[in-house]
Amino acid sequence: MTDQKKVSAFIIRDFGDAGTGEKFKAEAVAPISEGAFTNYQAAGLARKPTADEAKAAKAPA
């Protein structure tokens, strides 16, 4: 099995992936696999982050 490329995703609302057991919080930017991103985007759960959202996610808390 090969590792899938990760992409940044802006999470639109809280949800859990029953298949992987991962949980996501709304308004967060998370690294997820390209395949999962495609599925989450189609379901209206995630989208590509804006430049400002991506920058804020990388800033120290």
- How would you write the strand order of the largest sheet? 4-1-5
The tally of beta strands, per DSSP, is: 5
Helix and strand string, N-terminal first?
EEEEHEH
Structural domain tally: 1
Uncertain ranges: none
* Helical segment count: 2
Please explain how this structure is put together.
The strands form 2 sheets. A 3-stranded antiparallel sheet has the order 4-1-5. A two-stranded antiparallel ribbon has the order 2-3. The mean pLDDT is 91. The chain has one domain: Ribosomal Protein L9, domain 1 (3-Layer(aba) Sandwich). The protein is built from 2 helices and 5 strands, in the order ββββαβα. The longest helix has 9 residues, at 34-42. The protein is of the alpha+beta class. 28% of the residues lie in helices and 28% in strands.
Provide key terms for this protein.
61 residues; alpha+beta; Ribosomal Protein L9, domain 1; two-stranded antiparallel sheet; 2 helices; 5 strands
Task: Give a topology summary.
Layout: E1 6-11, E2 15-16, E3 23-24, E4 29-33, H1 34-42, E5 46-47, H2 51-58
Antiparallel strand pairs: 1-4, 1-5, 2-3
Quick structural gist:
The chain has 61 residues and is α+β, with helices and mostly antiparallel strands. The chain has 2 helices and 5 strands; from the N terminus they run ββββαβα. The chain has helices spanning 34-42, 51-58; strands at residues 6-11, 15-16, 23-24, 29-33, 46-47.
